[in-house]
Amino acid sequence: MENSISRRSFLGAGFTGAAALALAACGGNDNGGETPTDGGETPEAGMKVGLICLHDENSTYDLNFINAFKEAMATLGIADGDSMIKTNIPEGQECYDAAAELADAGCAVIFADSFGHEDYMIQAAKEFPEVQFCHATGTKAHTEGLANYHNAFASIYEGRFLAGVAAGMKLQEMVEAGTIAADEAKMGYVGAFTYAEVVSGYTSFYLGAKSIVPEVTMDVTFTGSWYDETAEKEGANKLIGGGCVLISQHADSMGAPTACENAGVPNVSYNGSTLDACPNTFIVSSRINWAPYYEYAVNTAKGGGAIDADWTGTLGTGSVMLTDVNEAVAAAGTVDKIAEVRAGLESGSVHVFDTAAFTVNGQTLTSYLADVDTDADYTPDTEVIADGYFHESEFRSAPYFDLQIDGINLLDTAF
Amino acid sequence: MIHIAKRKEMPLPQALAIRLGAIVAALVACGVITAIATGLNPVDVYAAMVKGAFGTPRKVWILLQELAILLCVSLALTPAFRMRFWNLGGEGQILVGGLAAASCMIILGNRLPNALLIPLMFVSSACAGALWALLPALFKARWNTNETLFTLMMNYVATQLVAFFVIVWEVPKGSGNIGIINQSTEAGWLPQVGGYKYLLNILLVAILTVIMHIYLAYSKHGYEISVVGESPNTARYVGIKVEKVIVRTLLLSGAICGFAGLLLVGGTAHTITTTIAGGRGFTAVMVAWLAKFNPITMVASSLLLVFMSCGAGEISTAFGLNHSFGDILTGIILFFIIGCEFFITYRIVFSKKEGERDV
User: Fold this and answer.
1) What predicted TM-score, i.e. pTM, was given to this entire model?
2) Do the Cβ atoms of B277 and B98 come closer than 8 Å?
3) Is residue B336 part of a domain?
4) Average pLDDT of the segment spanning A205-228
5) Mutate which: B95, B317, B319, B345, vs A, most A CBs within 10 A
6) B28-66: per-residue pLDDT in tens?
7) Do A314 and A386 have their domain in common?
8) Residues 6+ apart with CB under 8 A from B83
9) Do A8 and B317 lie within an 8 Å CB cutoff?
10) A14 near B CB under 8 A
């Protein structure tokens, strides 16, 4: 410590100088960052679009958004320099900062991909009324009343239902081949959290399988994280150990598919194909294709129109996708069966949450108030059962199906 | 033959020249690696980094805000480090401080006016952080336990505690997300100074820096810390109560970390997550070391690290490079800067060849 004073010399001199410059730069602008200064803001020139991602390409979830964004920007003819992607943006003040920086840089439309980004996108939307803020998976746009803040999701429950049909076909094949007895047709599901987005997902998957094998049951376990490879792997192993003969998941790492490949248990995946890593167990995967939404939002903004507060992509818009079926693992006839059910869903003759197809505590539902308008007390506010089925993603884009139906057994509900 | 000898105090201009040389060498090395690995022009990449840190007034504000928080944590660790107490629990102390602030905002947000609520948040955050540092300090003072492991483990306890309360307060149930607390009422939000979002945090930390410098350099406490750090036995011999100094200093260290948590939760993010500390408890260790535990020099070393991280974000956006590439550049530059201290502290002596022949 005797020489610590003399050592501060360089860093002290060099960088306090830089700090002074930085302060001077701030002082020069009265608005402290409300004025775009990039000089690139010419409305007639190429339109600029931004995307905020929670993680980077290493997360299957974010990769799905990034790929769709790049695809949509190419389709729309937006130059590379005019489409900006900010990765690794946490669900905190950093999200507001990133959104504001994109707005400063002249972006006319800004997308964000994670549920926890929502409040910060709203904060930015209030500050930049001329910029459109589009948030995927959020729930507040229809109650917030901001003209430039929008939510989007897709009827992914239809995709999961179709994936569930493929799972049911596989179970049926196993029963017919004598590998398992009919009462051993138990599936397992690794979920992230216990809220509606996940509940709606696993229930639709289960109902898809149940439409083929009526006696099927399912165990569900939760990890409490969207990306926790170890926990997801352990969750899948626990389910397999508990007698589940087929696994699916709603979390973003390779944990569950890898556990299935190691144990030789068939897997229905999510967010994209896991065929390369799991050639012997991968059946099919559903995913949301965000490109149609990106194209819709940018085109609408370009034309000066109003973007829907809630936009729900469907099978018809190309937003709900299924990967190719892995014929090596899937049961014979799976592709044809999926095509048949898909046609039914699109024509409206089949409904995923048909009240005749499930019971809650042994009762068939005729009425249910869902918590569509988000509030801290989870107050139910909207009647969602009509015409014999639960109307999912119609009163807002994000799912609100949160019923615990018979046949699904939750192993833990800590999260 | 070559051998290494410790230098006497090096003259300032020479020390400056060595450090400048190290930075130039680091930039050249980064340039070569950038060109080879990405095929981009390194000068463009450097320009983008500077633009990412200072390009617009908003970027400068963000840079200063990040600088303030990192500096605050570094200031918190410094008294402990000067005493050779390796407090690696900054992360946990920030988290519990933030958690205390968040719980005040959530539970008392609608019951107390801001004039009462905000002082209460200050007190509870500082107390929570201090408590988190007190436990390892007591064990160190009483039983001479290993403070490095103890403070490190307290981080995990804090993370799990925050994870638990996130589940208690999440909206909607089961989403693992609290969202902005009191977004409509702004209860418990620290006030904005002159309409600038981050100015209050920056001013508070600037004041803290000066106070900490005075405390360490000119107060009796600061002197006692130095003596305990140099030699606990000497300290005992001259009548300093070592245990008391350890506990008192760690209370201060933890309280300031808790204060950093308050600035994050009450000042900017207005939410609490398990990742809100963002590794600053560890980055601050590097800041403090780079500055040789001098609070004023720490302004510079935190600026360096914050600049590198803002720049890294910008190059990943501008060139579509993975964020990790920016981290690689940061690592190379730090390597050179830390490495050059070797040449300032020591000199390499080449024995004269002629001399060898003479013998």
Assistant:
1) 0.85
2) yes
3) no
4) 95
5) B317
6) 999 999 999 888 999 999 999 999 999 999 999 999 999
7) yes
8) B225, B226, B228, B229, B245, B246, B249
9) no
10) yes
So what's the pLDDT on residue B353?
Answer: 58
Residues in B closer than 8 angstroms to A4, CB to CB, are 292-294
Examine the pLDDT at A207 and tell me if it is beyond 70: yes
> Is the Cβ pair A8, B294 closer than 8 Å?
yes
Residue A268: closest CA among A253, A288, A283 = A283
Set of chain A residues whose Cβ sits within 8 Å of the Cβ of B58: 32-33, 97, 100-101, 104
pLDDT band at A306 (very low <50, low <70, confident <90, very high): very high
Q: Give the distance from residue A15's alpha carbon to the nearest chain B alpha carbon, in angstroms.
A: 5
pLDDT of residue B320: 80
Task: Give the pair of three-digit tokens for residue A305.
Answer: 């129109």
Q: What is the pLDDT of residues A139-175, one digit of tens each?
A: 999 999 999 999 999 999 999 999 999 999 999 999 9
Q: Among A207, A160, A209, which Cα is nearest to A185's? A: A209
Residue A219 lies in a domain: yes
If residue A317 lies in a helix (H) or strand (E), which one and from where to where?
A: none
**Sole residue written with tokens 């139910």:** A380
Q: Are A219 and A409 in contact (CB under 8 A)?
A: yes
Both A266 and A399 in one domain: the answer is yes
**Tens-place pLDDT, residues B247-299:** 999 999 999 999 999 999 999 999 999 999 999 999 999 999 989 899 999 99
Residue A25 scores a pLDDT above 60 = no
Q: How many helices (H) and strands (E) does chain A have?
A: 12, 17
Question: Which residues have a Cβ under 8 Å from the Cβ of A54 and sit 6 or more positions away?
Answer: A61, A62, A88, A89, A90, A91, A113, A114, A116, A117
Tally the domains of chain B.
Answer: 1
The alpha carbon torsion through B310, B315, B317, B320 (nearest 10 deg) reads -150
Domain of A311 in residue numbering reads as 156-410
A202 shares its domain with A338: yes
> Which secondary-structure segment (H or E) carries A316?
none
Nearest CA among A54, A249, A56 for reference residue A137: A54
Strands of the sheet with A132-136, listed across from one edge: A83-86, A48-52, A107-112, A132-136, A149-154, A310-313
Residue with more model confidence, A24 or B23:
B23
Residues A200 and A57 in one domain: no
Whether A17 shows a pLDDT value over 80: the answer reads no
Residues A84, A190, single domain; the answer is no
* pLDDT reading at A42 higher than 60: no
Nearest-angstrom CA–CA distance, B311 and B327: 10
User: Which residues in chain A are closer than 8 Å to B310, comparing Cβ atoms?
Assistant: none
The chain-wide mean pLDDT, for chain B, equals 92
The answer on A238 and A96 residing in a single domain is no
Query: Is residue B325 assigned to a domain?
Result: no
Distance CA A257, CA A249 (A): 8
Tokens of A179: 């590998």
Does A221 share its domain with A118?
no
Strands (E) located in A72-144:
83-86, 107-112, 132-136
Question: Measured between alpha carbons, how far is B252 from B225 in angstroms, rounded to an integer?
Answer: 12
In this prediction, residue B172 has a pLDDT band, given cuts at 50, 70 and 90, of confident
Range A34-38 contact pairs with CB under 8 angstroms and sequence separation of 24 or more: A34/A127, A35/B57, A36/A103, A36/A104, A36/A105, A36/A106, A36/B56, A37/A104, A37/B56, A37/B57, A38/A104, A38/A105, A38/A106, A38/B55, A38/B56
Question: Which residue, A136, A169, A194, sits at the end of a domain?
Answer: A136
User: What pLDDT was estimated at residue A370?
Assistant: 93
**In sequence order, which residues have a C-beta less than 8 Å from that of residue A237 and are 6 or more positions away?**
A259, A263
Shortest Cα distance from B310 to chain A (angstroms)?
11
Report the Cα A334 to chain-centroid distance in Å.
Answer: 25
Candidates A286, A340, A282, A334; CA nearest to A173 is: A334
Residue A326 belongs to a domain: yes
Helix or strand run (H / E) with residue B178:
none
What pLDDT is stored for residue A33 in this prediction? 37
Rounded Cα distance, A262 and A276, in Å: 14
